[in-house]
Design goal:
The protein has a single domain (about 15-60, about 75-365), classed as 3-Layer(aba) Sandwich (Rossmann fold). The protein is about 20% helix and about 20% strand. The chain has helices at about 5-20, 45, 130-135, 140-145, 175-185, 200-215, 275-285, 345, 355-365; strands at about 90-95, 100-105, 115-120, 150, 190-200, 220-225, 240-245, 260, 270, 295, 305-315, 320-330.
Length: about 375
């Protein structure tokens, strides 16, 4: 290869890698099917020569409403590779306006039905198969606490979260989740008053959008690495208990607000409010005028370059509670989860607290006033 070609390749490498940066954790899956890329946040490892393994989520479809025990997917791998639960997740399919939609569901032995439900959404560019591994073990917390967790799969590795700049499809993702909740209620698997939404990046934006669109079905939201999209300013928003977990060194969803993608990505992906403005947005929508209870998490991991400040508005469990985890020095990552891309690209993972335990501790105090 000529010197000129080598220089050109080196100049393109950061831009190529950046294409995966909005696909956190389980998420960066832009390679063609069958090439073996795992999409589970191991790109950093692959760059160090540790190989590429397939962990996509495609496979044979099952009949509507039936459990599927064999979880085939891209590269012949399955969700069990890196799975943290004591039992096994199962894959289901439902029809939404003629479109087949898939989701993994995990009902631990500790869950007494009808049980609380946590919906966990992957980021843009990814699939449901790696969310548990990415987040550092959400299924393990489900085992310990007795809730059901569902990992829905977005079409084209994407959720329609209200941002017109990223809309790739017209698929009704809100309708998909609404029907999913209804079917699980009919089966008496879940407590309809205790359904919660969480996710990272595109999945975090979608969690907030879902609560806005389904105020009678979502009891609380925890949004990771996703502040408030400016399109939400024009929406009719009902109060919902919310937790925001935001890194001040997030290179893609900037703490100070502005264009999503920062300096890494050129294609328009919408704009966000700053972390502080996002908190104020929800305080206003929740009609929450409480004085904050502030705390600082001990710096248990002094190698991650981050410290965590907590601002809680309203009593724990109150219907208008709003909580901000300001992760100073934290990146576009899930606290306690994977460092799925190099720190220089996305910032570090905060190791001072377990994001899954924190999110569940927030969720378990909330329920809808009536089961609607």
């Amino acid at each position: 290869m000529s010197k000129r070609a080598k220089r050109a390749l080196r100049s393109l490498t950061p831009a190529i890698l950046a294409l995966f940066a909005l696909a956190p954790c389980s998420f960066a899956q832009e390679f063609p099917e069958g090439n073996g890329y795992n999409g589970l946040g191991n790109l950093g490892q692959d760059m160090r020569g540790q190989g590429m393994r397939g962990q996509g989520m495609r496979g044979q479809w099952m009949r509507q409403g039936h459990w599927r025990n064999r979880m085939q997917n891209r590269g012949g791998r399955n969700i069990e590779n890196g799975w943290s639960g004591a039992g096994k997740p199962l894959l289901r399919e439902i029809d939404v306006a003629g479109v087949k939609r898939q989701y993994y569901i995990y009902k631990p032995e500790s869950a007494k039905t009808p049980a609380p439900l946590v919906l966990a959404f992957h980021g843009g560019g990814g699939t449901a198969a790696g969310v548990d591994k990415c987040a550092g073990g959400l299924a393990r917390v489900a085992d310990e606490e007795g809730f059901i967790v569902v990992f829905p799969d977005g079409i084209d590795k994407h959720w329609n979260d209200g941002r017109p700049d990223i809309s790739k499809t017209n698929y009704d993702d809100v309708g998909f989740i609404s029907k999913l909740i209804d079917e699980l209620k009919v089966e008496n698997l879940i407590d309809g008053s205790r359904v919660y939404a969480t996710g990272i990046s595109n999945g975090g934006f979608f969690s907030q959008y879902l609560a806005i669109q389904l105020p009678n079905k979502i009891a609380a939201v925890a949004s990771v690495a996703a502040s408030v999209s400016k399109v939400s300013l024009d929406l009719n928003v009902s109060p919902v208990p919310i937790m925001l977990l935001l890194g001040t060194e997030d290179t893609l969803v900037p703490w100070d607000g502005g264009s999503i993608g920062g300096k890494l990505l050129r294609r328009k992906r919408g704009e966000v409010l700053s972390g502080r403005q996002s908190l104020e947005f929800w305080l206003q929508k929740n009609r929450n005028t409480a004085q904050p209870a502030c705390a600082k998490i001990p710096d248990r991991n002094q190698t991650d370059g981050s410290q965590v400040l907590i601002e809680q508005y309203g009593a724990p469990g109150s219907s208008n509670e709003a909580v901000l985890y300001e992760i100073r020095g934290g990146g576009h990552t899930w606290p306690g989860g994977q460092q799925y891309l190099p720190k220089r690209m996305i910032g570090p993972v905060c190791g001072d607290f377990n994001g899954n335990e924190t999110i569940w501790n927030f969720f378990e105090k909330h329920s809808l006033k009536t089961d609607q």
